[in-house]
Structure formats: structure tokens, C-alpha cells
Specification:
This protein is 72% helix and 0% strand. It is mainly α. The chain has a domain of 190 residues: MetI-like (MetI-like fold), CATH 1.10.3720.10.
Length: 296
């Protein structure tokens, strides 16, 4: 006769073996492949729906306010009018020409500023002489709003592309510098001591221990600088812009086209989201070992 009962806890004398005459039925408790795939799809759909819910509600309220005349069209055009403005910009080719021009300015300034910030951060973090030379001046300069430097950059570089790139360059140095310096100085001293015990030279300790350990902080600084580059781009393209999104906004302001102004602002926001997504991909590729911790 087959007896079904919960598996007892066996003592050491008979560990791993059930008593004679007792037959245990094994139950497969592993998740089914179909159930796992269905749950994964449902979870992905739920996350997408939750993220799209608030923007969809805001757009619906915005459109309803315009339809019922609660907001004047010259103050805040409706979403339908914004879409019509995009169609106009695409039809005339202005939008297609403006986005590459603005991206070129932002990425050029970001590349220069991030490179200089990374070098200065490593120099100040790894060597005491670097900290004494650069840390105090950079800490003072970073408290100056980059917008306040626009008149000075115009005097130095004129009103051409050099002033725009210089403004973005000056705004993106400090996030990379601060995070690189903090990441290098935050490396656990026990790791450095262990590397010295194994006989590693100072150069190998820097390249094999300190920089890889500080890499998460460096990438956070780079991601922050990418966002700052878009903020600086908005200010830079107000300096006698002849191309780019800022040029579209200046013309729209002169012609009192609120719909095109809002459309241009949304383009800035979309560019910021796109750059942030690219930086997240870079972080995942550079740090595949870092776990993703989510409480709920």
C-alpha cells in the first residue's frame, strides 16, 4: 500500500533514506516555462502601462482644457496644434536640419568637457600634487552658474560656434571631475593594500584596482554631464544661433508662434531622454557585474 505523507526529517543514522515501507511521491515545484513567459510578458506590459498612464492622463486633461476653452490657444496650444506644428516643421525640413546641428554641438562640448574632467579627476584623485593644484580652483569655479559666463564667452570667442561649444564644455567638466575624484578617493584601502602585498606596481594598482573600482562613479558623472550638456545647449543656442533647435525657437518667438516654441521644448526633452537611455546602455555594457537592486 502506498502511503503519502510529508517528508520527515531524518536523523544522522538514516540521513537521506526514508523508512522502509514508505513511498514518497515527488512533486515538481519548478515554474512552468509557459507560466514564466506569461508572467514576464504581463510584468513588462504592466510596467509600460504604469509609465504611460500619467503622461496619457496629462495629455487628455491638456486637450480637454483646450477644447472647453479653459486655456487660451495663444497661451498654451492644444496637443493637436503641437502635432500640426511638428508636421509643418517636418514639411519645411527645418526639424530634420535642426536636430543634427544641435546634437553636434552638445556631443562636441560633452566629449571635450568629459575628457578634461576625467583627466583632472584622475590626476587629483591619484596624486596629492594634483589635488593641491586643481581641486580648490575647480571647486570654486563649479559654483559659478554657466549661464553667467555667456557674456564673457561672447567676448572671448565671439558669437559663432566656438562660444556655444565653449559654454557646453565649461558646464560638463565639473560633473565628470567631481564623480571621478570621489570615486577614486572612495576606493577601499584594503584593496590597495592587498594589491601591494601581491607586488603590483603603482601603475598596475591604478589601472587594475583603482580605476575599475571607481568606474561606477565615473559613469554616473558622465551620465550627469550628458544631461547638463542639453541644459547648456538650450542656453548656448540663444547666442545668435543660425541653425539648430534654438534657431527655430528664436524665429518662433519673433513670430509669436507658441505652438512651435512648445514643440521645440519637447524636442529638447526627447533628446535628453535619448541621451540618458544611451548612457544607461553604456553603463550596463561597462558594468555587467553590477546587480540591479529593486526593493519592490
Amino acid at each position: 500500500m502506498t502511503v503519502q505523507q510529508p517528508a520527515p526529517t531524518f536523523l544522522a543514522s538514516g540521513a537521506g533514506q526514508p523508512p522502509r515501507g514508505v513511498k514518497l511521491d515527488l512533486v515538481d515545484l519548478s515554474p512552468r516555462a509557459g507560466q514564466t513567459l506569461a508572467r514576464s510578458r504581463f510584468s513588462t506590459s504592466a510596467r509600460f502601462a504604469s509609465r504611460a498612464l500619467v503622461p496619457a492622463v496629462l495629455l487628455a486633461v491638456w486637450q480637454a482644457s483646450s477644447n472647453f476653452g479653459l486655456v487660451a490657444p495663444e497661451v498654451l496650444p492644444s496637443p493637436a496644434e503641437i502635432i500640426a506644428a511638428y508636421a509643418e516643421l517636418i514639411r519645411t525640413g527645418e526639424l530634420q536640419a535642426a536636430i543634427p546641428a544641435s546634437l553636434a554641438r552638445a556631443l562636441t562640448g560633452l566629449a571635450l568637457g568629459a575628457s578634461v574632467g576625467l583627466v583632472l579627476g584622475l590626476f587629483a584623485g591619484l596624486w596629492r600634487v594634483g589635488e593641491e593644484l586643481f581641486d580648490a580652483p575647480l571647486q570654486m569655479l563649479r559654483t559659478i552658474p554657466f549661464i553667467a559666463m555667456i557674456p564673457l564667452f561672447i567676448i572671448w570667442f565671439g558669437i559663432g560656434e566656438q562660444a556655444k561649444i565653449a559654454l557646453i564644455f565649461g558646464a560638463t567638466i565639473f560633473p565628470v571631475y567631481l564623480n571621478t575624484y570621489s570615486g577614486v578617493r572612495g576606493v577601499d584601502q584594503k584593496l590597495i593594500e592587498a594589491a601591494r602585498v601581491f607586488g603590483l606596481s603603482h601603475g598596475r594598482i591604478a589601472t587594475r584596482v583603482i580605476i575599475p573600482t571607481a568606474l561606477p562613479s565615473i559613469l554616473v558623472g558622465l551620465r550627469f554631464a550628458a544631461g547638463v550638456s542639453l541644459l547648456a545647449l538650450v542656453a548656448a543656442e540663444q547666442i545668435n544661433a543660425r541653425s539648430g533647435i534654438g534657431f527655430i525657437l528664436i524665429n518662433a518667438n519673433q513670430n509669436q508662434r507658441t505652438d512651435i516654441i512648445i514643440a521645440g521644448i519637447i524636442v529638447y526633452a526627447l533628446l535628453g531622454i535619448a541621451i540618458d537611455l544611451v548612457m544607461r546602455v553604456v553603463e550596463r555594457l561597462a558594468l555587467p557585474w553590477r546587480p540591479s537592486l529593486v526593493l519592490a
